[in-house]
Fold this sequence. Notes:
Helix content is 33%, strand content 19%. The protein is an alpha/beta fold.
Amino acid sequence: MIFFFSGTGNSRWAAQHLAEAIGEEAVDLATLMYGVEGVRQARFVCKLKDNERIGFCFPIHGWQPPHIVRQFWQMLDIVAEKKPYCYIVCTCGDNTGNALDIAERELRGCGLSLDAAFSLLMPETYVALPFMYTDTPEREREKLAKALDDLRSFEKSIAERKTGERHLVKGTMPWMLTYVVGGYFNARMISDRKFTVDEQRCVGCGLCEKSCPVGDIRMDNGNPEWLHDGRCTCCLSCYHHCPHHAINYGNITKKRGQYFFGH
Ligand SMILES: Cc1cc2nc3c(=O)[nH]c(=O)nc-3n(C[C@H](O)[C@H](O)[C@H](O)COP(=O)(O)O)c2cc1C
């Protein structure tokens, strides 16, 4: 079983590719959390088959696992005959910092020990701060081509249940990135309150609502509205999917590019 979270599709692609390669199922954890009429679930019992692996695939947000993934680990009950092989594949635009240390601690809390962890460099999606841009089309192509090669080699390790593997691009001063910069970013900058809609551009197509992985957007008389109930992960999927660039996050994204996997 591979649980994944994905805003703009990078991690969904990786999880589904991996699922096919190792013959296991990829399940969207946001659907498990909010699937029942949008109400957040309290627990999820995961019954693993004999010898089934358990994997998690998600994007790095501010050098940490996104809060929805941490919440999922906290609600997860694993039922298995013996301790399952456990791995993480995380996707990032640049580097992970020490995000996997946080993941490892959370996993221990649900009785799992991490056997292998990999980071996969994918096109950049965070554009709501100065000096943060989408990749050039050329860089995007390069990253995607390399990601496919890297993913195939990670899949081989996972299929063979290799233990102790850590293929992580952590960046310089990873502790600082995760706990200082990322700590501030995740505590203060993950919010849906800065989304705006340019009414001259918005045609009320509802693609933003459909693309939101956590069901944070409701269309009200043809206008997107955010719920403001803490579920937003700031994945920017609504911003990136808008065909008219009508959604922004503050003013900074007005001149930024858009990206989603397979666009
Ligand atoms: C809120 C947010 C924070 C991000 N923080 C980081 C980061 O700390 N390091 C990094 O390399 N990429 C970062 N990224 C880029 C994503 O991790 C990367 O593009 C990822 O592949 C997106 O996956 P998805 O399409 O499955 O959502 C961030 C993206 C978002 C939306």
